[in-house]
Amino acid sequence: MKAKQYGMTIDIDRCTGCGACMVACAVENNVPPVPEGANDRKGITWIRVFPINNGAEWPGRQSAFVPVLCQQCGEHTPCVSVCPQQAVQVDPATGIVGQMPERCLGCRYCMAACPYHARYFNWWDPSWPAGMEKALNPDVAPRMRGVVEKCNFCHGRWHAAKQRAAARGQQEIDPADYVPACVEACPTGAIEFGDLNDSQSTVARTAGEDHSFRLLEKLGTDPKIHYRSKRDWVRRVAAAPGKEEAHG
Amino acid sequence: MKATRRDLFKFAAGGAAGLALTPMPWRLVTDTALWSENWPGIPRPARGEIRTRFTHCALCPAGCPVKARCVGDQPVSLRGLAGRPLCAFGLTGHHLPYHANRVSRGDPEGAAQAVRAALSRRGANESVAVLDLRPGRTASWTYRRAMGALPGGLYLAAQSGLPAIDLRAAKTILSFGVPVLDGWGTPANVLAARAQFRLIEAEAVESHTAMLADEWLPLREGSQDALASGIRHILTAGAAGIPSGEAAERSGLPEATIVAVAQELARGDAVVLAREETDAVTELNRMLGGRAIVRRREAPAPFHWTRTAAPVTRFDAVPDQSIRALLIDESVSDGYFPWDAVERKLAPEATVVVFASSRAGYGAHAGFVLPAAVYPEIADDIPAAIDSTAATFRLAVPLVEAPATVVNPTRFVAELAGVDAGDALRERANAIEQSGRGTVLSYTDSRSTPLRDIKADAFWKILHEGGCWEDEARDQSPGEPRASAPAVVAMTWEMRMARGPLSPLVTKLYQESNLRVRT
Questions:
Q1: Among A89, B172, B295, B452, which has the highest number of CB atoms less than 10 A from its own CB?
Q2: Chain B contact for A82, CB < 8 A?
């Protein structure tokens, strides 16, 4: 069976910043709400949409929204390199960077190493309002206090897709069976997901198109999230965000 | 080599120091903390048979179809259907029954007595009124029937009878603060038509829609009418409105920009949308005469309802200090009247009863707050959205059981007036079925069937399985631009966040990130 390299393409020009991806992700992965008084530094958003602008004043002002999630680095994965517990591993079968909360000791080296700030620490026990535990997704275990977590391309859905494939007597999963929650929730279809190794897949085709870029590509971590925008200033911000150009 | 006692001590000390440099003690500290905690810790999600149910989201008039993934009877996630995705609110609708600040107790008997007492001491020019914040529902008909049966009964509604907006017929949209690209109308329709219209957003702050619009006009707060009037002046060659120079001065926009916007609107098929509709905006729309404003037929209702129903009264037509008892259905709301506007209409020491699930809205001012069911606890129909050119009838089917303490607002009002509310939804469905018009879409098998080919029981079953009836398309007659009651304020994202209730996970958007601002 040929190894897969799951990846995404995100069309920034189509993102409306509605936040449906952020909320869908939290529902799917049983990410708890933070207590009153917590801020954006202590919140947990496996995918976070950042509003950015070109720094100009009206009428030259232009704005965009950039969803940022774990970039699933394929080369020299920084979080894997620094983890003293081997709690982070790249799955060779899928290319997904997995986080094992049972192994994590909460040192947060990985958070410091991640150039995309896409890792989040559980400062509190996961808790939901009374009764809402009943509405949790049965396929994903909530993580305990004191561990780091991040996007894993909805690994629970990957397992479910594997089970469905096995029930059909197949080894390969049907691409339609495995779609992460953010992709499913995006109202404009700005996020596409698939196997980058499959030249027939939409994601492989769009990742190689003009106007396609990756965040902080110069670091050489081979991220598997490919962005697209026809606006030059967006690509400039993505290459090296500066305070005068990006906020959020 | 002979091992001495000293070597043993050195080995033990070296081992201890080495161990401290490994992750083990840190892991032990964490684990010990977790093992020794005496509170519930990590919740365990319930497991069971996975089922799929269909319904419609009742959180706004878009009424998006919902596919609910349930463990047993408990919904654990909601998702939209192909081409009809859910927004962030809709995705978390199944959390609303568990809102921590939910109103759970009320005094329905006390409220009923207070309203009866208010009715008995009602003056000759005083009235008892229902304020319906989502008109066009079957429940609205029940309110109208109840108010028709009560002496001095008034039915007040926000935005009733406004014409629909056909986005497919619009080439230019000038929006005064309407969140066109951020939850207005039916998001799927807006996205489908987006490539065909040019959006000019006139708004003081850089909202999401302003960021995504083709052109953003950052006018001064409160200068909407001046800009509309200035544009009108240009379009009428000076016959009406205020000079563009004065409009520029008041709005803070360059005069050339105002002239360019007016010229663009004059090219045809333009429509003006406003969050707070005023006469200036209505006049501008009337002058533009775009094809995008269309009249929409309402879904059929039983004849005996229409015969006995009270008319819809505009809020601003109610004399000040004339309402003796006011019942506000805030269980669902698509717009609201600022409280000071409501208060002006109340007689001294009037009785105010609010049906709500939280105290964030009118509840703070009411004498009685009666707990209402929230979506998805109660069966309710969803009126057609403003961008829907044909009438629709779809149900929000209950997915979870409502607490025993909630009060059904329609039943409460119907009982007060001695009107038989019965199974109003079923009666309405029968009236639609008898009309034989339109088609029925079933989401369980993705089939679209003409209504005339379906029997009444089958139609009701399809509706209960998340199906949707849509009136037949007909030649759209142009609608008459009409302002809504001047005081009504359409709900925006920020207002929904402020007035709640919301899933606690919505904090991801404003507290745990900087994507949204909570006002």
A1: B172
A2: no
